[in-house]
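Lab notebook, design round three. We kept the backbone fixed and only want residue identities now. Task for the bench partner: fill in a sequence for the structure below.
Input C-alpha cells:
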C-alpha cells in the first residue's frame, strides 16, 4: 500500500478509537475497518482475561455469534495464543502446514491464511488483532507492517479505556463504584425533576462476605437490569440500582426478580 494512503487510514482509525462511542462499539468499527482495509474475511480483537491466562473475544468482524462464544485460546494455544505469549507477529500463508493452528468444532468460517499481531502496552502483551482469509497467502509483508502500526494505536486506546474503567468500577463486581454512582444520581434526579419523569432506587444488602458468592450475585443482578439502569457497589457492600423512567409497580416487579 502506498505510503501516502497510510496516514489517512491511521488517522481515520485513530479518530474512531478516540470517539465517544461505547468502547465495544468502537472496537467493532475498528475491526471492520481493518478487515476491509486488508481484504480479510474476518478480523477479531482478543484480549487477555484478568488472570492473563486466556484470550477472549472483545470484538470481531465476520464471525458468527456461535463462533464468538466458543472460540478462545489459552496462553500459548493456537496461533493467537502463541502470538500473545511470544509478543511477536505470526503470518501464516497455509494453516494446514502450521502446527500452531487450532480449529474449533463449531467453526464455520473457512480459514486458509492468518495474520496475527500482538497488542503491546509497555512491552506487555494485552491481546491480539487477528485477520484470516479463506485464500492461501492472502497477507503480504506490507500488510503485516501496516497492521503492526495499527496495533500500536489500538493498544494505547485500550489501555486508556481500561484505566478509566478502573477509576469508576468496583474491582470485585465490575459494577460502578460509589463515587461514580453519587456523581450520576445527582444528574439523574435533576433530569427527572426537570422533565417530571419517575425515578426508582433499589438498595440490596449482601448477607455474605464470600467473594465468589458476591461476584455471582452481582452477575445475576446485572442480567435482570436494562441498559438504562445504573448499578453500583457501595463502600458498605450494598448494591444500589437507579431505575430511570420507572414507576412504583415496575420497580417492585424488577426488585422481586432480583
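Proposed sequence:
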Amino acid at each position: 500500500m502506498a505510503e501516502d494512503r497510510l496516514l489517512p487510514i491511521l488517522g481515520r482509525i485513530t479518530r474512531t478509537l478516540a470517539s465517544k462511542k461505547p468502547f465495544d462499539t468502537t472496537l467493532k468499527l475498528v475491526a471492520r475497518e481493518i478487515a476491509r482495509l486488508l481484504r480479510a474475511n474476518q478480523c477479531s480483537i482478543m484480549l487477555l482475561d484478568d488472570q492473563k491466562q486466556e484470550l477472549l473475544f472483545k470484538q470481531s468482524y465476520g464471525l458468527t455469534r456461535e463462533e464468538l462464544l466458543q472460540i478462545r485460546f489459552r496462553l500459548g494455544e493456537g496461533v493467537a495464543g502463541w502470538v500473545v505469549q511470544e509478543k511477536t507477529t505470526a503470518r501464516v500463508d497455509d494453516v494446514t502446514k502450521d502446527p500452531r493452528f487450532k480449529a474449533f468444532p463449531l467453526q464455520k468460517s473457512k480459514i486458509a491464511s492468518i495474520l496475527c499481531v500482538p497488542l503491546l502496552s509497555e512491552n506487555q502483551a494485552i491481546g491480539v488483532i487477528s485477520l484470516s482469509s479463506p485464500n492461501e497467502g492472502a497477507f503480504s509483508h506490507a500488510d503485516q507492517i501496516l497492521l503492526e502500526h495499527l496495533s500500536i494505536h489500538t493498544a494505547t486506546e485500550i489501555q486508556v479505556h481500561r484505566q478509566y474503567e478502573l477509576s469508576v468500577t468496583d474491582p470485585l463486581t465490575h459494577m460502578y463504584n460509589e463515587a461514580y454512582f453519587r456523581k450520576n444520581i445527582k444528574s439523574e434526579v435533576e433530569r427527572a425533576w426537570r422533565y417530571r419523569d419517575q425515578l426508582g432506587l433499589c438498595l440490596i444488602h449482601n448477607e455474605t462476605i464470600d467473594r465468589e458468592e458476591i461476584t455471582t450475585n452481582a452477575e445475576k443482578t446485572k442480567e435482570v437490569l436494562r441498559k438504562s439502569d445504573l448499578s453500583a457497589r457501595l463502600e458498605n457492600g450494598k448494591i444500589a440500582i437507579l431505575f430511570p423512567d420507572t414507576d412504583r409497580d415496575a420497580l417492585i416487579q424488577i426488585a422481586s426478580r432480583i
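Keep this in mind before ordering anything: The radius of gyration is 22 Å.
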